C-alpha cells in the first residue's frame, strides 16, 4: 500500500526545494551575468531550470521516488560543476547541497551520492589549494553523520506511522483503511489492464460461542492464530484485512489462476490448524467474488457478502462463489 502521507510530505519537500532554488540560486545568476562570469551564470541557471522542471514533473506524474533520486544526483553533479568552474566563489554551496541529498533519498543512498561528489571534487577541482582539505573532510563527515542520523530517524518514524495507519493492532492483519486503498488500486488495475483479482469475505463460524465459553482473551488469541495461519498459507501478493469482529477480507492477486482450488485449500488448512483450547476445530465460511467489468468497491464487497450469507445458509464450513 502506498503511504499517501509520506508521498505528500515528500512532495512538499520537493516544492520547498524548488522555492529555495529560485530564491537562493537565481540571484546569483544575475550577479554572475553582471560580473561577466557567463559560465557560472549558465550553470546556475541550468540548476534552477532543472530543479523546477523535475519538481513540476513530480507533482504531475506522482513519480516521487524516481524524481527525488534524479534530483539528488542532479544537484550533486551541479555543485561539483559549479565549484570546478567558479572555484572558491561557489564552494560553500557544497554544504547545503549535501544536506539536501539526505532529504531527497534514503540515508545510505544519500551517503553514496555525497561520497561520489566528494571524490569528484578531489579529482576535478583545484579548490583545495586554497581551502584546507582537512577542514573540508572533517566538516563534511560531521554534516553527513548528523544528516544520516536525522534522516534514519525520520524513516523509522514514517515506517511506524505507516504501520499504525494500516495494521489492525490486535491481530496484525491489515485494517479497513488499507483495504479501501488496496481495493481501489486493484479496481484501477483491472479496468486499465484487465488484471482481475478475487475478493473473499471470511467469517469464523460460531465465534460468539468461543467467547462465551472461554472468554474474550481466548477469543482474541483465536483471532490472532487465525491471522497467523491464514497469512502462512497465502502468497506475498495476497492481502488479508480485518473487516470487523470475526470477519476478514482476503484480496487474492491475479497471479492465482485457480482461485477455487486455492480457497478450498486455505479453508481446509484453517480447519486443520485452528483449534479451541480444548482441541476442537474452528471452521471458516467463505463468500467469494471475482472481479467483473464495472465492479466498484461497494458492489464487490456486496457480492462477496451475499455469497458469504449463502455459505452460512448451506451449513457453514464451506466456500460459496458469486455467480455474477
From TrEMBL:
It catalyses: 2 GTP = 3',3'-c-di-GMP + 2 diphosphate. Pfam families: GGDEF. CDD domains: GGDEF. Residues 195-324 form the GGDEF domain. InterPro entries: Diguanylate_Cyclase, GGDEF_dom, Nucleotide_cyclase, Rev_trsase/Diguanyl_cyclase. SMART domains: GGDEF. This is diguanylate cyclase. It comes from Shewanella phaeophyticola. The lineage of its organism: Bacteria, Pseudomonadati, Pseudomonadota, Gammaproteobacteria, Alteromonadales.
